[in-house]
Design brief:
Length: 582
């Protein structure tokens, strides 16, 4: 058996465990791992030269496939460059498998190159770390490697999903000789069965009793992938039980007459009397984090008397609003489906008339409609210059139906949330809201586009775009990628939030103007490039921009940050009118 055969066999074990995608960053120490996956006939291997970008590309792939994606990198500081993507995956609960090559540990602190302490390097940002042996002569070492890889892949999938680290010390030689067979052998597969928690009948009875005692029940949806079955169920719960369904664009709740999606507008500075009318007796939350401060602040300042949070596991207590009374270990769709069926049947037996029970829902819906009108009025003022916000509205109106939208952090995701997407568009929305950093937004969208044939549109600001340009370094750039770049020459968000916007150092130390355009970046990456600075130009370019083609496309939208600020401040000045006018 060749010296490195147990390491080469990892490729076959990844395949047997259901992994199909691997992202590799070039390196010598990691060569055995790289050659093993590249030469495996059933693994799709993509190369990203920048490890930070590679981590986010893998994240984007895993977001779309909901299957672990493996990442291979060499030793030393290269491993640290995976950290931002690892942290995002951990808090967004996306499965990744990190295979980091390392020097044997006896060479640590011996003035050897590319050698750092990699054991447990990612700390608490991974579900678990494994350190494989550097010597494989004893059968127990090979057994340990197989067992660890089996366990690591299963753990990445186990709810809550997340990244798992396998540190792989490797001795030379790294490369096979001319006559050496470098091929994975069958590996022992250990299947880990999944199980869904069930609630005892008496527990269900207690929950139903709490529901019956609550005159005002509300369901708040945090960030979740689009799920048609869940949306249909939430619609039925709202229509038939009179329950407000509150969420945001990252919740994948569409704008319609039923769901409540404009909370960032109508909860801003809401008077106590109106807030009390919207306070639920029972709050039910599902999904990950909420996007907007106003919605989170409302639930904290006006806490529900009872708060259920539904999540698949109880390893951590998620109490985002400091009001949690019951943590329910269940898949949200399955739990809500049974809850609705039981309540609906009970009301049928009792002959309940639901007409009077929808008053609470109507309060929320009326506030939402007022907010929607205010947003529409802000964006429809005549003779208005093109702004980031109005540009986002035009883009979202023309985005292809049943496509994928990635929202970069800072202002793009917030503008998109203010606008929303219609139910008929059926667009799936993703965003890196686990840690909410601007690093890696472009790379994540590239990874998403690699995972599908659908059009993937990225809405991104200039600072986030230029920060992550290495996403476009490694080819091929998927032809279904569409990049909408909002370029206002700096960190525009600092001009819109109260603290930095009042400081004389705003422009130099917060906004950091740069004067760049994306023209040269697009040319280097062989991406179609267009630019718009007027609404008429943007409107005329969008149909062709979204049309499928053989190349990725980048549409740069140039706006004036001061006009952006004027529009947003004018909108904020009108918020109080929501409660002083009919």
């Amino acid at each position: 058996m060749p010296v490195l055969q147990p390491i080469v066999n990892i490729a076959e074990l990844l395949y047997q465990k259901g992994i199909t995608d691997v992202v590799v960053s070039p390196g010598s120490r990691s060569a055995p791992l790289t050659l093993a996956v590249v030469r495996h006939p059933h693994l799709r291997v993509r190369v990203m030269a920048d490890e930070r970008s590679a981590g986010f590309v893998a994240l984007g792939l895993a977001q779309q496939t909901r299957n672990p994606v493996a990442i291979i990198c060499t030793s030393g500081s290269a491993v640290y460059n995976l950290s931002p993507a690892v942290a995002e995956a951990y808090f967004q609960q996306v499965p990744l498998l990190l295979l980091t090559a390392d020097r044997p540990h006896e060479w640590l602190h011996q003035q050897d190159g590319q050698t750092i302490d990699q054991v447990n390097l990612f700390g608490n940002q991974v579900k678990r770390s494994y350190d494989l042996p550097a010597d494989y002569t004893h059968p127990d070492a090979r057994w340990f490697i197989e067992r660890s890889v089996n366990e690591a892949v299963s753990l990445a999938r186990l709810a809550p999903e997340g990244p798992v680290h396998l540190n792989v010390p490797l001795r030379e030689p790294f490369y096979p000789t001319a006559n050496e067979v470098f091929q994975a052998e069958p590996a022992r597969l250990i299947t880990t069965l999944s199980a869904s928690p069930t609630l005892a009948p008496e527990t269900w009875h207690a929950l139903l009793t709490e529901w019956e005692r609550s005159d005002r029940t509300l369901i708040a949806v945090g960030q979740l992938p689009r799920n048609s079955a869940l949306l249909a169920l939430l619609s039925k719960i709202s229509d038939e039980l009179g329950v407000p369904i509150v969420g945001e664009i990252v919740s994948n709740l569409p704008v319609n007459d039923r769901f409540i999606t404009h909370t960032d507008t109508f909860l801003s500075g809401i008077p106590d009397e109106q807030a009390e009318a919207l306070r639920p007796d029972l709050l039910i939350t599902i999904g990950n984090s909420l996007l907007t401060r106003n919605l989170k602040t409302f639930f904290r300042q006006y806490p529900a008397h009872r708060h259920w949070h539904i999540q698949p596991t109880v390893d951590r207590i998620t109490d985002a609003f400091q009001s949690l009374t019951t943590l329910i270990p269940a898949e949200p769709l399955a739990f809500l489906d049974k809850l609705f069926a039981d309540i609906d049947y009970q009301q049928f037996l009792q002959g309940d008339d639901d007409d009077d029970s929808h008053e609470f829902l109507h309060h929320w819906q009326q506030a939402d409609r007022k907010a929607a009108r205010l947003v529409a009025q802000t964006l429809s003022k005549p003779n208005q210059s093109l702004t980031d916000w109005s540009a986002v509205q035009l883009v979202l109106e023309q985005i292809p139906p049943q496509s994928i939208l990635h929202l970069a952090n800072s202002m793009p995701v917030r503008y998109a949330n203010l606008c929303g997407l219609s139910e008929q568009q059926a667009v799936s929305v993703s965003a890196n809201r686990g840690v909410s950093g601007i690093d890696g937004c472009l790379s994540t969208a590239v990874g998403a586009a690699l995972a599908t044939d659908q059009i993937v549109t990225l809405l991104i600001g200039d600072v986030a775009f230029f920060y992550d340009r290495n996403a476009l370094w490694s080819s091929p750039i998927p032809p279904n990628l569409r990049i909408v770049l909002l370029n206002n020459d700096g960190g525009h968000i600092f001009r819109l939030i109260d603290g930095p916007s009042r400081q004389p150092e705003l422009e130099t130390y917060f906004e950091t103007p740069h004067g760049y355009t994306a023209r040269n970046t697009a040319a280097d990456a062989k991406i179609q490039y267009q630019i718009a600075a007027k609404a008429e130009t943007l409107t005329s370019l969008l149909p062709d921009f979204f049309r499928p083609g053989s190349q990725a496309k980048l549409l740069e939208i140039k706006t004036d940050k001061r006009i952006n600020q004027e529009q947003f401040l004018a909108y904020k000045s009108q918020l109080n009118n929501l409660y002083t006018s009919n």
